[in-house]
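Hi F.,

I've been meaning to write this up properly since the lab meeting, where we talked about keeping a consistent format for the predictions we share between groups. The idea is simple: the sequence comes first, exactly as it goes in, then the structure tokens exactly as they come out, then a line or two of notes. No screenshots and no reformatting. I'm using this chain as the first example so we have something concrete to point to.
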Amino acid sequence: MVHGRGTGSAIGGAINFQTSAAGASGSTLRSLSTVASFAGGTGYATFQNTANTSSSFTAFQVLSAGGQQLFGVDTGANTNVAKFTGSNGTNQCTVAVGTGWSCSSDERLKTNIVSLDTLGSLEKVGALRPVTYNWTAEASGDRSLQYGFIAQDVEQIYPEAVSTDPTTGYKMINQGRLLTFTIMGLKDAAGKINALNTAINTSNPSALTITQPATISKGLTVTGPTTVTDPTTLSGNVQFSGGAEFEGVVKSTGRIELSKNNTGSTTVPAGQTTTRVAFMSNFASAPNIALTPHDFLNTKYRVTNVTNAGFEIELSSAEQTNKLFDWRAL
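Output, unedited:
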């Protein structure tokens, strides 16, 4: 049935396509179900599939050959603004009032689930370039500042998150995949931080290896071997009682205090030309020795017979008084 609504209606002139239920009688508007309605006065077109006496109805929908709703736009009491359903009838995305966009993610709908390896993800996320921009299609006076990424940039790092429209050639970012990769980077960072904190926060760790840039701002005592291969800032009191190896330039803006195994004083007795210094514990290899005499000397002096266990101070000729020397072994 085609029904033309008069101009006395609140919506102005309209053409309605309506059907009546099987076995129904009468032709009043309230007894019919509106299939489609077009109005010129207000410029709208409505497609619905329930009687227009209902306060909640599907304003527009696309059905599959089997009658499955693939796309629907709802109005009235329904909180869903739009719903998209896959051809299998289970996977769907919904735009809802107050909650925004959500898509099916139920475990029961998925198979072949494999956890992603987050190792190395932090560096890739760090390479992303967040930008601000304006859309070129907007008039210059109406352009609002946008925040996001450039698809070509993202494609160099995460090609799986970028696709190209076959018609226009424009590139698009899959925001869901990009979010997944970003979370992988956060998990990688969390793992590195936790591993570092485990070593740093231990009061007396037996060993410490730092392979990422780190800042240690409180006291640290390491009783075992220590290896540092990346820039590290030590702003607290740090004590290495085991071997420590730094691969790179070591700079200090504060005071460096050496242990008794690295510094001390010794005397060459009057009338003698040599004295032997023994380290409290052996070095891994023979260290470099620096000497500073306390007094003026009438003779020359040198360091000789240096081993990992000690060294000797030798004078070219004996002095008449004891001669005190400070030494440092590094």
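Notes:
The longest strand covers residues 32-39.
Residues 223 and 265 are 26 Å apart (CA to CA).

If this format works for you, I'll send the rest the same way.

G.
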